[in-house]
Amino acid sequence: MEQLADRILLLLRFQPKRKIEINDLSKKLKAELPNVKAALKILNEWGYKFLQDKNKISFVSAPDILSATEISHQLKTKFTGKVIHSFNTVKSTNDIAHQLADKGAVEGTIVTAEKQTLGKGRLGRSWHSPEKMGIYVSIILRPKFTPDQAPGLSIMSALGVAEAMNEYAPKKVQIKWPNDILINGRKAAGVLTELSAEKNKINYVIAGIGINVKQSQSGFPLNLSGTATSLQQETGKEISRVELLKLVLVNFEKEYLRYRKNQLIKSLPRIRKWSSLLNQEVTLQWNGAAVTGTAVDIDRSGSLIIISKGNRMSVSSGEVTVVKKQ
Ligand code: BTN
Predict the structure, then answer these.
(1) What is the per-residue pLDDT across 227-270, written as a single tens digit (0 to 9) for each?
(2) What residues have CB less than 8 Å from 234, skipping those under 6 apart?
(3) pLDDT at residue 120 tops 90
(4) How far is ligand 1, taken at its centre, from the CA of residue 128, in Å?
(5) Ligand 1 atom closest to Cα of 189?
(6) pTM of this structure
(7) Positive or negative: CA dihedral 209, 210, 214, 216
(8) CA distance 177 to 139
(9) DSSP for 142-154?
(10) Distance between CA 86 and CA 137 in Å, rounded?
């Protein structure tokens, strides 16, 4: 029945304004009339809206759900999101992506969920993933380069996400090294990249992306309420998660294709321009130690360059905070 529902949608969406006789629909799809009616009922329950006038029907609108049907509709990518595993509730889309990749899932396969019960963040943190409030997606990559070239994928992913979000909130988006996306200085998205590799070979990379889209400020738990935000809150506009996800996939793929050719070289000017840390006094915490200095650059490998007491440090991971001016 779900397959029939998908075929009905395809047909009605092809000419959205045209009214089609339900009888003709059943003939065109070679499906029994009661089955067509039952499929239309299912589509209604999923949130699709149709205009029905006696026995004629036309497409009005689709719901903002992260289903394979909605994501793949007019998705303009070459390979990203061509295979979609969409779930309602999972522990973590990254964990499912690992399982699929271990079984041979192709590059560009994506896993999405409406809700995560154990969403993972960087540095062992959790990612708050309430139902239908955000985008929770993991992308499987199978780059041909060696594991030492993988670290830059984090900031590359952040750039792809930031570019998509910039379409909705122009001039308000920044990247906080290595992979946070800020709007008006607050965190609205994050990327968790996980690598499976042997000595000299990458088996696969999972790029897990979490975007806060619809949360109101009171929707965040207390520990996040001072630092987190959502795209909808910062723009004051109603945002379609499906449309945003499609834009993320397009931008992500563009950046990834650039990265496969030239690593970060072509992306660095934009990464630097959008960085929230450059030329700021920052504190780096890593391995239980803290260093304060000036963040001066992000290099070709994606490392942050900090000058501390005259020493130039190249930092590949850790947590960086801007030192507040007194
Ligand atoms: C961070 O900023 O700490 C990274 C957050 C990454 C969250 C996403 S949501 C989809 C994917 N699945 C997970 O469990 N985590 C990532």
Answers:
(1) 999 999 999 999 999 999 999 999 999 999 999 999 999 999 99
(2) 169, 172, 183, 184, 186, 188
(3) yes
(4) 9
(5) 2
(6) 0.95
(7) negative
(8) 20
(9) --SS-GGG-THHH
(10) 9
